[in-house]
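Supplementary Methods S3. Input chains for the assembly prediction are listed below.
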Amino acid sequence: MEQKTAHEHEIAHKPESFWTKYIFSQDAKIIGIQYLITAFLMGFFAMVLSWLMRIQLGWPGKQFPWLERLMPNAMEGGVMKPEFYIALVTIHGTVMVFFFITAALVGGFSNILIPLQIGARDMAFPFVNMLSYWVFLASCIVLISSFFVPGGPAGGGWTMYPPLSSVKEALPGSGWGTTLWLLSMALFIVSTTMGSLNYITTVLNLRTKGMTMGRLPLTVWALFVAAIIGLLSFPVLFAGAVMLLLDRHLGTSFFTPYIVVAEQHIPREGGFPLLWQHLFWFLGHPEVYIAILPAMGITSEVISTNARKPIFGYKTMVASICAIGFLSFIVWGHHMFVSGMNPWLGTAFMTTTLVIAVPSAIKTFNWLATLWGANIRFTTAMLFAIGFVSTFVTGGLTGLFLGNPPIDIQLHDTYFVVAHFHMVMGTAAAFGIFAGTYHWFPKMFGRMMNEKLGKLHFFLTFIGVYLVFFPMHFLGFMGIPRRYYAFDQFQSFAAAAGGSINLLISVVAIAVGLAQLIFVFNFVWSAFKGQKADSNPWKANTLEWQAPSPPPHGNWGDELPVVYRWPYDYSVPGATEDFIPQTVPTVTVQTEKDGGEVKDGKVS
Amino acid sequence: MMNSKMGRIDAAFLAFLTVALVVAAVVTVGGKFWWLPPLASEHGKAIDTLFIVTLAITGLVFVLVQLFLALVIFKFAGSEKRRAAHFTDNKALELIWTIVPAVILTALIVSGGRLWSRIQIAEPPEDAFKVEVWGEQFRWTFRYPGKDGQFGRTDPKLISVENPLGIDKNDPAAKDDIFFFAGEENLHIPVNKPVVVYLRSKDVLHSFYVPQLRVKQDAVPGMVTRTWFVVTKKGEYEIACAELCGLGHYMMRGVMVAEDEKDVENWLKDQLTVADVLP
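Predicted structure tokens for the full assembly:
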């Protein structure tokens, strides 16, 4: 019976034409690559937007005629308009959070890794999976198109707080731009929901024989929990986006009270702006864990493989992932300590927020313990995984300031917040993406990425992000508010922010951005010309390395792999090799001691 | 396998960068080259203390963890001759690094929670000086309750060029209110006396932010929010907007003048009331 099912699958996964194989593909691996490449393009786009912001902040008031030629409206006279600056802030944040980090980690790596690592032939619903990507692509196009509409893109910040976002009179970008932003977000959520359903179903139902939940690689655990979080929290923002659209276009008053904008009366009644903040952050905060959990999973996998050591405390790692997943739903109010919500809620949200630091700390210490006694192989992926730990620690610790409401009074909406989330969520998550890309590139394309270029990319990026984001803590100490187009209107801010810190940040930000071109070149060049990869170039244990590089549609030959052990049997004492793939039966491992048997990492 | 000599160079360089990061962080933070704005409020002292305590704790963890990371990177750089150790967990260790952070965080929760109760949950004293601060794109404006200590009713529907805050002039409590047109006057408040600021907005969200006072509170249209504080130093303080409110967000500047109570009262005596301005 088993045989027949496998055979039927084989027929279903026969070779296809170029269009069905690479474009309208239903093969999870190809969809994953589509997600990943689209996300990289979006990330690059958002990085260019950050360059424009840094040009304004580093050289305020200076004329850039060449920029005026590129963008005659936004850069009239060669100097950026304030409304364009906040549009850049908004779209940079939106794209980085959703269209780069989330799309790459959740859309990209779920598809690339889940079916392969659990020994499935594909996702549970391949057609829905394809649809998920194409709806995502549509949401990207809708968002980018907002640069070409009257009033320009949305400018209310990525949090899109009403009434600034609900009333077109409040801001040029609150016309067409915000409508397109909301439509794009709605499409994005439809896409993520289809994806999440697929990932959850696949992990629960399509694990191959022997692949118990307790033998799942931590990547799959992380992607699985991230999918659950996404499924439960994204639809709340969808509801919010629809309500905001109704407020904007049908005159409802969910979020918009009676207001007067520049002498113009906006006749609404009873709307409550804080309601949006609650709905937004009910997704918005879990969202950072949707992004960081997969990056943590990738880090665990890459560190264990290249340390040649079992991941330390597997069960605690899984428990921490689940604890973070659960707690992520009840911390959202820490974004709202000074919003006007009841201060008693502040106390409650402070407690949950600081509690979530415990599982995060456990994970960090477990990575360090994994590295202790290791035989570290410094691949580019490993460097980025270590970089993840470094930036996650740096950025995570500053969360203890912002999660504590009395301190948050002072630091809220200053550059300290910008420093915090760029370290912990921006950089750390991006490092997770890079680690995953360098590590699984051979599986995706059957070729190796160039390690020399990879390391150059890592070191430039590592130095660069610290030079860009660490000084922002100091701007925050000095009270400099974020989302400010210029600081010259305030004596205290002009003195503090007008100096060399912003100039340094701008110069390095542009340089570290340019360093990403090394990665782009390496990626494209290696996909076609890279050294051919064998099926298991890193000598890793997880199932995907038992399939050819790249695996065919359907992943496995006639028979699905069978799993006999957990994925972290590295450097098992007595075993001849320093790794034992999950497919190796427990009794057949060659041991140096005669008659010894290796079972789940322990010689008996 | 990777070239292990190359690996050692990578390891040394990354460990060096990590140590350099720690040194740079300790020098720049410890040297206080860029620091909190000079303090001018009573409750701000406790906030700054909690900030310093948190900075000390997180700073210590940062230094130890980063240095440990540098150590393991350097010490355990790969070699073909060696094999990694093999251990999968250690209950005692894991218990330690669950409990120690939990204890530290509990201490932070307790101290943060107590301070928060004192400065944000606690009601201001009855005799506090009351003032309303209104935000609108991109200016601040102010209303004082007058002799009766009561703010008159407002209704956004009544807002007009003559009546910028929409004050109901028929409300008896409104007659002696004193209000200003946006940008017309500075905010005058007494020093060494509790001041309650009621925050209101005519249009979008704003946030009343005075860095030297450690005060930040959003102004939300449709509701009244509140913050209170005691200013300890006479002088002028800039009021900034800390919640994105539109294209002029960066220039939404106001000035708070903290002076002796008597001077504030004298100044208020000279101002026109609603009864004078809105006949």
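Chain A touches chain B through 118 residues (CB under 8 Å). The mean pLDDT of chain A is 93.
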